[in-house]
Amino acid sequence: RTLYLTNWFSPWNIAKFHGMEMYSEPYWKMLEAYARCMADHRQNTVITQVMDLITIHYDAQGNRSFDFSRFDRWVELFKKAGAIGTIEGGHLGGRGEWEATDFDAHRPETLNADGSVRPKPSVKVTSNEEREFLSYFLPALQQHLEEKGWLDCYVQHLCDEPIPQNAESYKKLYSFVKEFGPKLKTIDAAMCNEIAGSIDIWVPQPQHYENDIKFFEERRKAGDEIWFYTCLSPKGKYLNRFLDYQLIRTRLMHWANYKFGLTGYLHWGFNYWRGDPYTDLQNDWLPPGDSHIVYPGKRGPMSSIRLEALRDGVEDFELLKLLEKKDPKKARE
Question: By percentage, how much of the chain surpasses pLDDT 90?
Answer without folding.
Answer: 97
